[in-house]
């Protein structure tokens, strides 16, 4: 049987597959891979895939593979890699710096932020955050949420999640950066974006449910982060993050198209 060539594609929206699975390793043409744990359970017990059927694999690093299920064992499934597509990645970096919110709001932000193309999540304790740390079990759940969202929305890269100290311990922020500001004199985010060209990385800072402290606002400005308004209403932390990401991504898409 002749070897199939590796395909390359520019960034595009891919159709949502019926069966797409995540494997955290490099994927090579005509090699065998083993699906285990959560993904194995979903393959066998939820989707009830049978030997000989086709599925898709992603590794969160820009690779999409077509695979055939060869065998099902007690704790893993054996797959044969039939075709590999590599996405040509854009050099942009979009970062959401999110002060710790409540767990349900954080789950929403991680899921929707992944769908909206966030490359990195920086999570940190805000002065007025109800919680000051994220435990290992919560970190595992956070990664699982981004994996599920990546598979669902069709993207091929998995955003990273970093757990940062409080803002006062940060160095000056590189690239373009903004934070949600309630100051009536702050410009609208859309106006701040319209007068600029993308300078990566692009970072948006969102406070916790109780907002920024006056000290945090001053420190953000000292570090070169521009305060902007998103709406004339006060937005909840998850609403603010998603609204900001949507506006920034729309601006980036317009710039890429021009």
From TrEMBL:
It catalyses: uridine(1498) in 16S rRNA + S-adenosyl-L-methionine = N(3)-methyluridine(1498) in 16S rRNA + S-adenosyl-L-homocysteine + H(+). InterPro entries: Alpha/beta_knot_MTases, PUA-like_sf, RsmE, RsmE_MTase_dom, RsmE_PUA-like, tRNA_m1G_MTases_N. GO terms for cellular component: cytoplasm. One of its GO terms (molecular function) is rRNA (uridine-N3-)-methyltransferase activity. It is found in: Cytoplasm. Its EC number is 2.1.1.193. GO terms for biological process: rRNA base methylation. Residues 91-249 form the Ribosomal RNA small subunit methyltransferase E methyltransferase domain. Transmembrane segments: none annotated. Keywords: Cytoplasm, Methyltransferase, rRNA processing, S-adenosyl-L-methionine, Transferase. Residues 35-81 form the Ribosomal RNA small subunit methyltransferase E PUA-like domain. PANTHER family: 16S RRNA (URACIL(1498)-N(3))-METHYLTRANSFERASE, RIBOSOMAL RNA SMALL SUBUNIT METHYLTRANSFERASE E. Belongs to the RNA methyltransferase RsmE family. Specifically methylates the N3 position of the uracil ring of uridine 1498 (m3U1498) in 16S rRNA. Acts on the fully assembled 30S ribosomal subunit. This is Ribosomal RNA small subunit methyltransferase E. It comes from Candidatus Protochlamydia naegleriophila. The lineage of its organism: Bacteria, Pseudomonadati, Chlamydiota, Chlamydiia, Parachlamydiales.
């Amino acid at each position: 049987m002749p070897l199939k060539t590796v395909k390359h594609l520019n960034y595009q929206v891919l159709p949502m597959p019926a069966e797409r699975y995540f494997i955290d390793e490099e994927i090579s043409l005509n090699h065998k891979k083993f699906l285990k744990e959560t993904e194995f359970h979903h393959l066998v017990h939820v989707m009830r895939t049978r030997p000989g059927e086709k599925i898709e694999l992603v590794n969160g690093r820009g690779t999409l593979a077509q695979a055939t299920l060869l065998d099902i064992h007690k704790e893993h499934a054996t797959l044969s890699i039939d075709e590999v597509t590599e996405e040509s990645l854009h050099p942009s970096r979009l970062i959401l710096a999110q002060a710790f919110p409540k767990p349900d709001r954080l789950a929403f932000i991680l899921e929707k932020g992944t769908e909206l193309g966030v490359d990195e999540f920086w999570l940190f304790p805000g002065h007025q955050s109800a919680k000051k740390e994220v435990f290992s079990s919560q970190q595992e759940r956070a990664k699982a949420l981004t994996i599920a969202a990546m598979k669902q929305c069709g993207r091929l890269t998995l955003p990273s999640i970093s757990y940062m100290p409080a803002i006062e311990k940060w160095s000056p922020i590189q690239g373009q950066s903004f934070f949600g500001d309630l100051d009536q004199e702050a410009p609208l985010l859309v106006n701040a974006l319209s007068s600029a060209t993308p300078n990566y990385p692009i970072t948006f800072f969102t406070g916790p449910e109780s907002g920024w402290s006056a000290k945090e606002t001053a420190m953000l400005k000292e570090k070169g982060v521009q305060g902007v308004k998103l709406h004339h209403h006060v937005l909840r932390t998850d609403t603010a993050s998603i609204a900001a990401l949507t506006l920034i991504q729309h601006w980036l898409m317009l710039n890429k198209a021009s």
